């Protein structure tokens, strides 16, 4: 199995054992973990908005060897998924591009089983302060909420980003999770790569929450 980026490795580690479990992947990143999990005996569902990405996925060798359920829809449109039918849901970075993350949280609260886990990554709020936007008078601040085009970012990111990023302070993320019935049991600040340098600036806020 080919190597994956450091962020995807961390997400996989937080998910843990998947054999015999129903797993929901929200949005494709660089690697389709649903293919890997299907090979490990899981029953994955992938939700992706981009038709082009899904066409490429369906043409891949991994998908054709280990087929799994694929849905093209917005990440918050989970009406097809029965209540309390999913053991684990995850999104590597796609939720950074949604403008209604509260609805995603509410939908996941419905479809996850009791004590089900939800792992997801967001662009770290401090990371936005590391780049200058073209033609911008001021750089982004920690509490910036204005959407930012990922093409304007001048630093390397572990995985491809959504085209438009919606910054969110951690306090707001925490409050939305709590109101949706989730409790956070692990919070990681992930750098761009595993350099072994503990002082590396974080790029991703990686959260594991539990219903």
Number of domains: 1
Count of alpha/pi helices: 6
Mind telling me the CATH superfamily name?
Vaccinia Virus protein VP39
CATH class: Alpha Beta
Strand content: 15-25%
Kindly describe this structure.
The protein has 211 residues and is α/β, with parallel strands linked by helices. The protein has one domain (6-210): Vaccinia Virus protein VP39 (Rossmann fold). Helices cover 24% and strands 25% of the residues. The chain is built from six helices and nine strands, in the order αβαβααββαβββαββ. The model has no long low-confidence stretch (mean pLDDT 86).
How would you summarize the topology of this molecule?
Elements: H1 6-15, E1 22-26, H2 33-39, E2 43-48, H3 51-58, H4 61-65, E3 69-72, E4 86-91, H5 101-111, E5 112-123, E6 148-149, E7 164-165, H6 170-179, E8 183-190, E9 204-210
Parallel strand pairs: 1-2, 1-4, 2-3, 4-5
Antiparallel strand pairs: 5-9, 6-7, 8-9
